[in-house]
Model the fold of this input.
Amino acid sequence: MKQINILFTGAGRRVELIQAFRQASLSLGVTIKIFGADMTFTAPALSYCDYARKVCGMRDEKYIPQLLDICKNDHIDVLIPTIDTDLLVLSQNERLFASEGVRVLISKSDKITICRDKNHTSVFFESCGLKAPRTYDDYNAYDGGYPCFIKPKDGSSSIDAFKVNTAEDLVVYSQKVENYIIQPFVDGTEYTVDIFCDFDGNPIYITPRERVAVRAGEVLKTKISNDPVMIEECMRIIDKFKPCGPMTVQLIKDRNTGENYYIEINPRYGGGAPLSMKAGARSAQALIRLVMGEKVEYQKNCCNDQSVYCRFDQSVCIDRGRDTEEIKGVIFDLDDTLYSEKSYIRSGYKKIAEYLTIPQAEEKLWEYYLKGKPAIDSYLEEISQLEKKEQCLEVYRNQSPDIRLYDGVENLLRSLKDKNIRIGIITDGRIQGQKNKIEALGIEKLVDDIIITDELGGVQFRKPNDISFRILQCRWGIPFEQMAYVGDNPEKDFQAPTQLGMKSIYFINEDGLYSKQGHSYTDTIESIKELKI
Done:
């Protein structure tokens, strides 16, 4: 597959999960595009996606049709749910998505039902030969002693979950919590087991980890624990449940007896799943390989035992409102932002025509390009000289191109310099080819710094990787909030600047390869003038 399109529903705050998939694609050398769906565009994880999609509530009858439309229009390959309320409705409609060629990472609906009702969950654990706290759904019938625990039978994230110390308090909480269950309190150490299986429910990763510190039901600090008993017990759960993709299992190891009491199953990526990925349970990589048709075997004890991982919060600006920050540095993209990339392509075809000593070759190559065909291959095949392909590619890539800056660019750059604004260029592409463009444009004398991302160590440093932006920020000593970025490609140009807190200016180039609407460079100049510089 040339590209895999992944849609995360209920994107919310799942920044770590999206970053894990981004890193997995880079490690595998596979191109992925990440789409995020949420009820609001202010969900922070959307800033880390390539594309954001707004949807209605998951209980709305329009929800599934909206997701299907997104999957069709965006050619989604895999849909990954991230919150409990999404699971049942997606599992019930899995066939609709499958008919569109979309793999939903979801277990069967009868298994989802088990997880959504903790009465059923307890019975399921017992059917696996495991211990589970006895469950009551009427406080009048509860005889399990105190303290006990009361929580919603279909709850998640520890919402409305309370430890109860007396019978009198239990009466009070039973009126507060709707559709509750009551369980005896197990005094011990809490664990989460991150499980990842292939599409047929065969285990690939089983990673027990101690929940060292927790906030609002989500782990903040965790310690890997390759407990063989937990792993064997989770093998029993997998054998009966047959999860498709990720699943988390929660349990408590009794402080006195050392026995494991299983309390919850979430058949999705848990909030702390990226911690297991960092520890070595690389389920994002495994999923990408599975989508590509590979077989992935069970990975035993892949994580370092007793290693500790912590999580922390960070911020991302969703809406700047009225800006008060003064701009002290502006970074530009190069191709189709400062000059026309089509002129570079046309120049390359002219050089090939000169190499072939066939003057009309330039126009024929251009015609193939305009038709969306591989121009060099198509033309060489037409003239029966396909054996010259490598030489033609070398001529194209190493050309001294006939290109020039867009009108107004030089004046803009000089104007910025006159105001003591630092100016940089960050550009992707083959190193020698980009250097030849820079030399032909005579732009080095107009800017302070130029970074060709491939020089940093390879294609993995290309945008949206943020390393090049961080390098310029360090060189200039300017806060990100006082820097702006100008680019033309919404697929990759603005993700890193947005996450870093920079301002972004979208140059919608009507003659460009990637822009979506008509726009002129003078409009971009006006946009820069509107900044406080």
Notes: The chain has four domains: 3-105, 112-133+186-310, 329-340+403-530, 342-397. The chain is about 35% helix and 20% strand. Residues 3-105 form a domain with the Rossmann fold fold (CATH 3.40.50.20). The chain has a mean pLDDT of 92.
